[in-house]
Each structure stands twice: as structure tokens, then as C-alpha cells.
Task: inverse folding
């Protein structure tokens, strides 16, 4: 099946296409020519790691990364309570042609194989897209009058709660287009935020693209206040939310993207409670009240 996500054409070849299509139907496309990424997904009962691999960096999320003898990279998942390798990804030298092998962990209490393939496919896309200069940013993303705002915070802090407040206050002027992993990409000197079919624990996502107005780093507080961040404060708030692997070329691309984002998009800190005044506080700080 062919899909287009954030302007990138993906050819997904899978033994379990129905669930993937159900979750990605809004991104289905028919493109001519070569795909940006070809991802072959298969279920395997005995996943073997390549000979002579060298581990690279520390675990990133659930993935352990390695470099192969031929200089290309891969990653795998190994759980302590499951005897087999749970998943394995092999990339080619351009991060373009990708193999995803998945072991069925449902008998051990895991998700059904079709669902796992969909979520792991999202991980594969997250890392692969860095090879083409885009990146996945951990945040809840809204469009307000066709301008994007990303709200970032550690899981459980209240990103989704805050974006829901925007919806309550501004009604149809607000659209939540990804609740966990929007994609950032610079095109024609503008930073755009894209929706994607992977949106964390929810299925809240839309296949849209909006120019990014602001990035807002949230934290809880009794009283609402907001300020613009600069320098290293802004850099680290953005750096920490990008999904990135311990691979030199991909990390370099991520840093280049971060520089581009910071040149074009202001970063704010919002200390907030769960009241609607929190929306007004950041609305004014970002400058919507002056437009």
C-alpha cells in the first residue's frame, strides 16, 4: 500500500495490511515513481541478529541500536521476560529501503501482531525521516486559524488537557491535528508542522500541514504565567522533544533541523493550571491578541 505522510511517499509491504490501512487511510495515496521509503514488514518466529554487530549508544526508547559490518545501521527490541528478539529493523545505507521483522508477543500479554506492526512502523518512520531533514517532535499539536502551536511536556504533565482547553475556548477555530508526534519540516524558508497517523495512545490525528506559530513547553503550576525562552533554554526544550537515534548522520540532520526551527519559531514556557485562563495567558504571550 502507498501512503504519503508529511509530503514523503511511503511504500508499505506487510502481511497484515488491513489494520495499517484502517489507521492510515487518510494518508493513502497513489504516487508514481520511486518511494522515499520502502518498508517491508514481516512476522517472524525466530529473529536473528546480524553477525558482528557493534552496539551504538544507549537504548533509545525501546530500541537498541547497532552498526553492521557493512557500515549500515539497525535496531532491535529485546524484553527481559520474552526469550526471543521482539523486533528488528535493518536500514540500507540511505535509510530508504527498510526491513522490519516482528515477533508475535501477544501470547506474553502484548498487543496483537497487526497493531504492533503499525506502532513499530511509526518508530521506523520517525527515525528514517531524519535522513531527509524532517523530524518527529513529541508534543500535542493544534491548528488555530490555520497556524500551528505545539505543546510539549513530559508524558502525564497535561499536554492533551491543555489542547482540549483550546478547543473548549475557541471551538471551530481550533483543530487538534496530532496528540503526540507531529512532524516538523522546513519548506521554502517556513517551518511547517504536519499531522501523522501515529499519535501516541490516541487516534487523534489529521492529515494537514500548517505553518508553525510557536512551540510551548508546559509545566504545572497553581498560577498561570508565560515567558519567551531564548538561547540554551530554548534549545534544550526543543532538542529534548525530538525523537533521534545515536547515529551520527541522523543526529547531525536533527541538529540542523533544530537550528532551522529556532531561527523561525519562538519558544515559550507556560506554567499553568487546568483553568481556561491558561489558554488566555499563552494566547497573549504568543501574540495572537495583537493580530
Result:
Amino acid at each position: 500500500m502507498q501512503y504519503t505522510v508529511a509530503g514523503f511517499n511511503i511504500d508499505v509491504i506487510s502481511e497484515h495490511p488491513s489494520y495499517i490501512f484502517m489507521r492510515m487511510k487518510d494518508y493513502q495515496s497513489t504516487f508514481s515513481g520511486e518511494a522515499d521509503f520502502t518498508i517491508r514488514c514481516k512476522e517472524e518466529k525466530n529473529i536473528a541478529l546480524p553477525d558482528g554487530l557493534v552496539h551504538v549508544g544507549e537504548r533509545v526508547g525501546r530500541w537498541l541500536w547497532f552498526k553492521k559490518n557493512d557500515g549500515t545501521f539497525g535496531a532491535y527490541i529485546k524484553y527481559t521476560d520474552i526469550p526471543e528478539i521482539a523486533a528488528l529493523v535493518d536500514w540500507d545505507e540511505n535509510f530508504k529501503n527498510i526491513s522490519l521483522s516482528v515477533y508475535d508477543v501477544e501470547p506474553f500479554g502484548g498487543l496483537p501482531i497487526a497493531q504492533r506492526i503499525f506502532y513499530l512502523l511509526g518508530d521506523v518512520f520517525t527515525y528514517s525521516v531524519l535522513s531527509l531533514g524532517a523530524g518527529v517532535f513529541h508534543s500535542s499539536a493544534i491548528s488555530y486559524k490555520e497556524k500551528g502551536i505545539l505543546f510539549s511536556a513530559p508524558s502525564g504533565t497535561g499536554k492533551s488537557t491543555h489542547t482540549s482547553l483550546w478547543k473548549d475556548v475557541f471551538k471551530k477555530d481550533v483543530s487538534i491535528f496530532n496528540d503526540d508526534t507531529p512532524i516538523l519540516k522546513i519548506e521554502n524558508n517556513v517551518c511547517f508542522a504536519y499531522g501523522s497517523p501515529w499519535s501516541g495512545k490516541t487516534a487523534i490525528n489529521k492529515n494537514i500541514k500548517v505553518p508553525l506559530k510557536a512551540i510551548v513547553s508546559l509545566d504545572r503550576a497553581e498560577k498561570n504565567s508565560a515567558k519567551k525562552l531564548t538561547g540554551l533554554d530554548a534549545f534544550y526544550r526543543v532538542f529534548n522533544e525530538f525523537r533521534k537515534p545515536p547515529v551520527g548522520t541522523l543526529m547531525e540532520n536533527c541538529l540542523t533541523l533544530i537550528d532551522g526551527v529556532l531561527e523561525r519559531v519562538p519558544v515559550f514556557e507556560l506554567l499553568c493550571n487546568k483553568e481556561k485562563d491558561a489558554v488566555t495567558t499563552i494566547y497573549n504571550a504568543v501574540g495572537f491578541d495583537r493580530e
Observations:
- Helices lie at 17-24, 113-128, 159-170, 231-239, 248-264, 277-286.
- The chain has two domains: 2-132, 135-290.
- Residues 60 and 140 are 21 Å apart (CA to CA).
- The two ends are 43 Å apart (CA to CA).
